[in-house]
Structures are given as structure tokens and as C-alpha cells.
Amino acid sequence: MLLRVVVWFCGFLLLTVSVGHAKAISSLAMPSIIVNLPSRTIELFSGSTLIKEYSIAIGKPSTPTPLGNFAIISKEVNPAWYPPDEKGKVVPSGPANPLGYRWMGIWDTYGIHGTNAPWSIGTAVSNGCIRMYEEDVEELFDLVNYGTPVRVTYDRVKVRVNTKGQVLLAIYPDIYGYADMNVQEVRNKLNAYPAGAFVTDDFLRKMLDDPSDCQVVIASQFKVRVNGKLINEPGLVVQDVRYVPVQAVAGALKQRISWNDKTRTVEYGAKSVPGVVSGNAVYVSTANLETLFGGEQSWMSEENSLNFDKLVVFLNDKPLSLEVNQVQGILAVPILDLAKVMGRNINWNEETKNVTLNDKGKSVKVSVDMIGTVPYIKITNINQYFDAYVYWNEEGRIIELTYP
What CATH class has 312-402? Predict the structure, then answer.
């Protein structure tokens, strides 16, 4: 399966939730900062929630920004700058000061600060400090306090889901030569996300050969509802094909399916369709979902969701693999399959289209309706011939049969 990716997000700034400017520090629960050097970004978290990502400049290879776990140990408005190579010289706050108008010290002489060279953001040019756009550093300054954890990492691979439900992959340059990577290492990162198996090794190899600051859309997520209820796992759009997590759908329908690892197919009764294993889920296309279960599908573009509706038949609280159709506006099921699961002796004459039921030594002709080559019995007639009570739960789209 070749993944042709045509959507790229280049640049650095990714706004997830607008925090506004000069919010109270108390508005963030357990704030923390992650500085990632290859992507040249700062991520601001509130607890485990990513609030915002900022573009930064980092140390040049000869004076790299140090890796490790730090914390904000000092904060200063309008800091003065003391040039390291000119002892005794002081540059006061102002346009000529390379620290900008905010300073947050994290360790020794290293800190996060503004800059009077906004063109440098996104590059590796500093003496080891972390530069931010002035408006960004002033915002961050007001959102964090002394003791806020700061973790400096070197993660060349980033995978995330944005607010639009798109799964993004980025492979960043090895700026300091710390982390040469291969395809398997990238795939190990992808395996934590449902779209990983849809990306080919060739595609990953090309990204490794030409790393950039672009985030590539490898898939888009959508909601899946089964009989009106939202399932936990999202569907995926890959190369304009919609895929659904078939195990979650089967679970919502209370149907039993199996995965054949040798043939790479999903099996449901006598039916089988190809599937894709990604993460902990098995995906099938929406076309194959209909082949597998029947049912009806509808796409709700406003909600970015797929609705899948299928009538389910239960016999004494156990789900059955029975197709349900309509005959003259009345629900009907295949009588041969119904008789088999109920353990009833039935004869089917394919030439005459007659069905007879052997009941207590008597042969009783059953009223059936043909759909194609298959005889169906209306649910209103089941009790007459099979002595089973039938309850139609329209809201839950369930036909319940009770049989002694």
C-alpha cells in the first residue's frame, strides 16, 4: 500500500488552545515546558494537556543548548545583558539588548528570553540560550512561575493529532548530530498511533533522507457511530479511503469476528474481507464493512462522522449472524439460517420455492418471501411457526427472540 501524502504543514507555530495574553498563573494547572531542539519549539503544558507550541532559536552546534531536566529559577523584566567576551560591559534593556524584554533563567547562565533579532527564530545560532519572539516570551513569562519544570529534549520524530483530527508526522534535522535514525526507529514512534501501518517504509525513508520542518498529514480521523452510539476509537481517512476499526464496530453490534493473520483478513461467519492491523486495532474500508455486516452507512460532513446502522437479532440474549431485510415494509430474516440456529428441522425446495417445517411429526408449509434466491420469513410470522416470542426494539435497532 503506497501512501501518497500531498498535505504538508511547514513552519513551527502550532496553536492548539488560545491562552490569550497575560493570563493569571493560577489558570494553568501544573504548568510545564518541553523544549525540543531538533524541531526548535517550546511546548507549554497544563498538566498533560498541550496548551501552545512556540517557535524558538537554539544554540549553534559549537555552543549547543544543554539537554536535561531543569526549572525556572529566575524571572526578570527588562533584563540587562552582560556580554560574555567583554568583561565589565553592560547593555541595558532596549532595542540593542539581544535578550529582549523578558528573561527566564533555567540553569547557570542559560535561560529562555526574547530577542532583538526575530529573523533568528527557527535557527541554531545562539550561545546556548533559547530565544523566542518578543510577543511569545512575554506571554509565556506571564503564564509560568518559579519552579516550573523545563525539560530540554532531542526528539527528531514528532507524531501528533491536531484539533482537526489530522495525524501529523514530522522528521526534523539532526542539528547536533546526536541521533542518527533508521526507518524502524521512526516506525516504533508511529506504532503508538492508529495510522502507523498505513505509512510505507519507502515513504519514511524519503523523509529521513530529506528531513525538514514540515509536518506531513498521514491520515485524518473521524467519528464513528454505530446504531446512533459513538464508539471510542476513531475512523481514519487515508488516500481518500475511509477505514473503520472493525473490532470496535463488531463490539457495538455484539457480533463475533476473527482475524486471520495468515491471509490478513477479517472473518465474520462465511464472509471475509481484507484488513489492516495498525496499533492495537484492525481496520477495514467502509466498502468492506458493508460487505462484512451489511447495514447502512451515512456520512455527516458537518460532524465529520460516519453513521453505521445495522439491525441486530438476538436469540435468548445471544447475538445471531442473521441478515435483516424488509418485505412489504415488514422486517424479515432468512428462514433457513433462523431454523438452523433454533435447531428446527426444515426442508427447502429450491425448484418450487417451498419451505416446510417438520413439527411433531407433521409437515407444515411456511409462508416465505423471496429476496433474490433466499427465502425470508417476516418477523410477524415467526411466532406462528417457531413458537418464539418476538420483540422489536426500534430505538436500539434490535430484534429479540425468546425461545424455550
Answer: alpha beta
* CB-CB neighbours of 29 under 10 Å: 10
Region of residue 68 (phi > 0: left; psi between -120 and 50: alpha; otherwise: beta): left
Judge: domain 11-153, CATH 3.40.630.30.
no
Tell me, what's the pLDDT at 16? Answer: 43
Q: Which positions are annotated as active-site residues?
A: 113, 129
Choose which CATH entry (3.30.30, 3.30.70, 3.30.457, 3.40.50) describes domain 221-309: 3.30.457
Helix or strand (DSSP H, E) at 222? strand 214-226
DSSP-assigned states of every residue in 176-199 = TS-----HHHHHHHHTTSTTGGGS
> Residue 61 burial by CB count (10 A; 0-12/13-18/19+): exposed, middle or buried?
exposed
Cβ contacts of residue 234 below 8 Å, gap of 6+? 165, 194, 221, 222, 223, 224, 245
* Closest CA relative to residue 170, chosen from 212, 201, 220: 212
Instruction: Quote the pLDDT of residue 37.
Output: 98
| Residues counted in the chain | 404
pTM of structure: 0.70
pLDDT of residue 2: 43
pLDDT band, residue 25 (cuts 50/70/90): very low
Say whether pLDDT at 21 is over 60. Answer: no
